Amino acid sequence: MPSVFIKTYGCQMNERDSEAVAAQLIAKGYSLAPSEALADVILLNTCSVRDAAEQKAFGKMQNLAAEVRRHRPNVVLGFMGCMAQSRGQELLDQLPDVDLVLGTQKFHRAADYLDDIFAGRRAKVCDVAEETGSEATIREHLLNGDAAAKSVTAFVSIMQGCNQHCTFCIVPFTRGEERSRTIADIVTECRELVARGVKEITLLGQIVTSYGKREIGVCDGKSAFVQLLEAVHEIDGLERIRFTSPHPKGYGDDLVEAYARLPKLCESAHLPLQSGSDRLLKLMHRGYTRERFINITHKLRAAKPDIGITTDIIVGFPGETEADFEETLSLAREVQFDNAYIFKYSPRKDTPAATLPNQLPQEVKEERNQRLLQTINEIGARKYEACIGQRQQVLVEGPSRRNAARLEGRTRTNKIVVFEGSPRHIGQLMDLKIERAGSFTLYGDPAIVNLDEPVPQIFSPA
Ligand code: 5AD
Question: Is the four-CA dihedral 209, 215, 221, 227 of positive or negative sign?
Fold first, then answer.
């Protein structure tokens, strides 16, 4: 059977989709190639959120067509995901070497289409149609493929799409209308993951605060999303729950209270801000004000004082003035984010903001990006330094990405901690003493925690 290499661009949802496609292909007898040079099928799972992300995947495919195809003409090349969805047939027209274009509602058809191509039944496939029920098709997990290297954490997709239509955002076009899976279906998937050794689950959706709004609705004052959190929380053996991304507009008090009530829900919130200026928030169609955003962070900190709060911010939205931008800077200082992802505004096809007047020059976007980055880094550095000397609970995930001789895990507030340990620690919850802080990384020492603990005394009966 052929081997496959999947390269993923973009967000956690894309990582999750790639994992599900890989697991589906393995179940059908395909193997995973260790590199694209050795693969019979190369799939690029793409991101459309900014033009740079599309350009990157497009350039990569041109390169594969020129280099890999030249030596191995039978290699199958495919695009999947958001750019496949938004560009469809156009990709086949522009890049004649591409064999497969698979949209965001068709990931579960990957194996069938590859079989068709290998069997010569079809020369090329482009499927970007909508499919009822596709939200429940992202369910297979790879979990590192073998029992020896068990996955400790897993992503679970709970919904697809977004109806918010922020004026800058292409997601409603690439992911479609909001559709939610049932609570029972999601809980079944989570239970299976826990039975396979997973300790931490991150619930994923483009706008999780809208989960089940239509399909499930409010019950006893609790939104469908909070009902889902409660149901997942019941699973024995699951230690930690996270979710991403909520929308500030739908961030109700029931969700804030869930942090106080549900001990498995980690003290960490990724709350996309986009701008600190009310004028821009309106132009962006975000549906909340600066004051409302700040208020949510106050409520979260009242419920969980040490909660880690991170955000997404766009700089250089059309018409953003220096005064608007300073409102964003001042909000960042006021809220004291633990970290923030900063994006330079990128006009996207068919979105209202792309045709707004006063599109800003690249230099202005760049300069604001740098200034905001500096502010975020200064605040983040202080937040991370404040952890030094503390004891933090860490779920050990595996070898450190920076230095494979060490281990890494995350605190409940979602900060990476690197420490010296042994493979038997992987999958364990450990208390570590934080010794040092680097750039958005903590360094911990398990030995020091052990020394601090009272030594157990063994008394022999008199
Ligand atoms: N330009 C720049 N950044 C964008 N984002 C979404 N659309 C755009 C765009 N057109 C950012 C937002 C979002 C994150 C995932 O990507 O900050 O939260």
Answer: negative
> Which of 9, 14, 47, 49 has most ligand 1 atoms within 8 Å of its beta carbon, as the pocket-test mutant?
49
CA 326/CA 332 separation, integer angstroms: 10
Identify each DSSP E strand in 73-162 by its residue range. Answer: 76-81, 100-102, 125-127, 153-157, 159-160
Q: What is the dihedral of CA 253, 256, 262, 265, to 10 degrees?
A: 140
Distance in angstroms (rounded) separating the CA atoms of residues 338 and 307? 9
| CA atoms within 13 Å, Cβ hemisphere of 316 | 21
405, two tokens: 């001789």
Per-residue pLDDT tens for 225-245? Answer: 999 999 999 999 999 999 999
Ligand 1: residue of 168, 204, 274 to mutate (most ligand atoms within 8 A of CB) is 168
Where do we find the tokens 């909070």?
226
* Helix, strand, coil abundance in the chain, percent, nearest 5: 40, 20, 40
**What residues line ligand 1, using a CB cutoff of 6 Å?**
49-50, 168-169, 272, 274, 312, 314, 343, 345-346, 348
Q: How far is the CA of 169 from the centre of ligand 1 (A)?
A: 6
Q: Is residue 382's pLDDT more than 50?
A: yes
Distance, C-alpha 252 to centroid of its chain? 22
Pair 34, 3: CB distance under 8 Å: no
Rounded to an integer, the average pLDDT of 107-124 is 96
Q: Which residues contact 264 (CB under 8 A, 6 or more apart)?
A: 233, 238, 239, 240, 241
Contacts of residue 98, Cβ cutoff 8 Å, sequence gap at least 6:
61, 65, 77, 78, 79, 91, 92, 124
Give residue 452's pLDDT band: very low, low, confident or very high (50, 70, 90).
low
Rounded-to-integer distance, Cα 396 and Cα 417, Å: 9
Cα(140) to ligand 1 centroid in Å equals 28
Per DSSP, the three-state class of 379 is helix
Q: Where are the alpha helices (H) located in 319-397, listed in sequence order?
A: 322-335, 362-385
Q: Could you give the C-alpha distances from 237 to 191, 227, 232, 393, in angstroms and in order? A: 9, 19, 11, 17
Angle value at C-alpha 241, between 240 and 243, nearest 5 degrees: 150
β 416-419/429-438 pair status: unpaired
Residue 80 CA to residue 5 CA, distance in Å, equals 13
